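Q: I'm writing up a methods section and want to include an example of the input and output format. Could you take the sequence below and give the corresponding predicted structure tokens, formatted cleanly so I can copy it straight into the document?
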Amino acid sequence: MAVRVEANGAVRVLRLDRPEKKNALTQAMYAALSAGLDAAEADPAVRVAVLAGGADFTAGNDLADFAGGRGEGPSEAFRFLQALRRFGKPLVAAVRGHAVGIGTTLLLHCDAAVAAEEARLLMPFTRLGLVPEGGSSLLLARRVGAARARWWLMAAAPIAGREAAEAGLVTRAVPDAEVEETAMAMAEALAALPPEALRETKRLLRAPDEAALDAAMEAEFSAFSARLNSEEAQAIFRAFLSRKG
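A: Here is the clean output for your methods example:
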């Protein structure tokens, strides 16, 4: 299975495990992540969840999955993003190597994130003929400011882990060898606190953006679906896959 579930006392780790593809996400992996979050939410023994990878966090959506477009219904990726935003317990991310596309936008739904100083975060939507997703068209500017958000999303500019921490996109940047240890220490610190107080604090922190985030994610989903099925995007995917082949 390309998503492993690891129990660490009160901390549940969902680990991407497709290293040969830099943890590029398939529809089955999104479904497994959604199920893992739902299970962690429902288990009273779990107080905190951690999203992790290996040498790479994730290369983003597997582009082979984008080729040929998509039907009208929500994808497993969209369902995963919805599972992220409704997750009521603390959520921590441990980011090493590449964090591409959804690998960066999902961090906007985490309560803490640790990145390797030399990690490479990238939201390459415009390069692929696509548009932002995961509520990033709203949340990124609120997190890092409008100027950075516009440049990172429109120019698809890469972001080093150190820069991401300085901008406030992630909580801390540490040497690569310390990422997982630091993320687990933060998760365990949260797990030691009163769980209902944490849940209510998270609810209050999210409440001001709830209605706007609903609208942003719906608008993004509509625009993303249209762009995914466009000839511009499909030509980019075909060219990429022909080079890979």
